Amino acid sequence: MRRERRIPVLLTILLVVPALLLAPVSAVRAAEAASPPGGDEPTGRTIVAGVGSVLGTVVYAPFKALVLCPMMALAGGATYAATLGKSKEDAEYLARVGCTGTYLITPGMVQGKEDFQGSGAR
What we know:
74% of the residues lie in helices and 0% in strands. The protein is built from four helices and no strands. The N and C termini lie far apart (46 Å). By secondary structure, it is an all-alpha fold. It has helices spanning 2-34, 43-82, 88-99, 107-111.
């Protein structure tokens, strides 16, 4: 029985971790392809931004998806229940604020070229 439980967890880890690690790398390649050949930016900065985006995404995406979003959804539900449904807008706002915005950090965000849309982004 224990072995049966390990397989889905292992499969999830084997699929999620590479996806989290490769998403920012593909963003770096796209940014390099979009920049002109004689661009202002040295390749070293692009590489550092790519590494920073990978590390940032590995930490931030699971935190947002597994902690922030569910907790804000629970807070929204508690608000709805505590006000007996009279404060539906507030409950919806709390649920939305924790689950919207940036999940993957791109090299452009690390370099300050793109906006980081944290929780509650509109």
